[in-house]
Amino acid sequence: MKILVLNGPNLNMLGIREPDIYGTSTYKDLVALIEKHCAEKGIEVNCLQSNHEGDLVDYIQQAYFDKVDGIVINPGAYTHTSVAILDALKAVSIPTVEVHISHVDERESFRQLSYVSYYATRTIIGEGFDGYLKAIDFLADGVN
C-alpha cells in the first residue's frame, strides 16, 4: 500500500507557529512519527509539504501516476480557499482523508468552510499529530 501525506502552507513552521494551538513539536517530528507508524504497518509513505497551491495540485496529480492508494491531506489555509485542490482530488479519484491538527470548528468563522471536505471520505480534526495516524489507519483498513 502507498500513501501520500500532504501538508499545506505554514505547516513547515510547526513548533514555532502558534504553539498554544499547534503544540511545540516540529514538522520534522510529525514526519518521523508518520514514517515510523507506516514502517510498522508495512505501508509505503511519502510526506510532502508546500506553501504553494500549485505544488500541492501537482503532488495530487502525480499521485495518480504513481499509483498511490490513499491521500492524507492537511491543506492548511487552502482548506478554506482552494477549489483547485478540490478539483485535483476529484480528478485523480484517490481515497482521501482530510486532517487538521487543531479544532478548526472552534476557531474563526472563516475556518468553518472546507472545500476539501466536499471530496474527502473522512475529516479528522483536533486530534493533533495522532489525527494523521488515524487517517492512515482508516485508509489502510478501507483499501486493503
Describe this structure in words.
With 144 residues, the protein is α/β, with parallel strands linked by helices. It has one domain: Rossmann fold (3-Layer(aba) Sandwich). β3, α4 and β4 form a beta-alpha-beta unit. The mean pLDDT is 93.
Task: Provide the descriptors you would attach to this structure in a database record.
144 residues; alpha/beta; Rossmann fold; five-stranded parallel β-sheet; 5 helices; 5 strands; 18% strand; globular
The string of secondary-structure elements, in order, is EHHEHEHEEH
What percent of residues adopt helix (DSSP H or I)?
A: 25-40%
As a whole number of angstroms, the C-alpha radius of gyration is: 14 Å
Structural class: alpha/beta
Shape: globular
Low-confidence stretches: none
Order of strands in the sheet with most strands: 2-1-3-4-5
- How many distinct folded domains? 1
Number of strands: 5
Strand content: 15-25%
Tally of DSSP helical segments: 5
CATH architecture: 3-Layer(aba) Sandwich
CATH superfamily: Dehydroquinase, class II
Could you tell me the CATH topology label.
Answer: Rossmann fold
Main beta-sheet annotation: 5 strands, parallel
Mean pLDDT: 93
CATH class: Alpha Beta
- What is the CA-CA span between the terminal residues? 8 Å
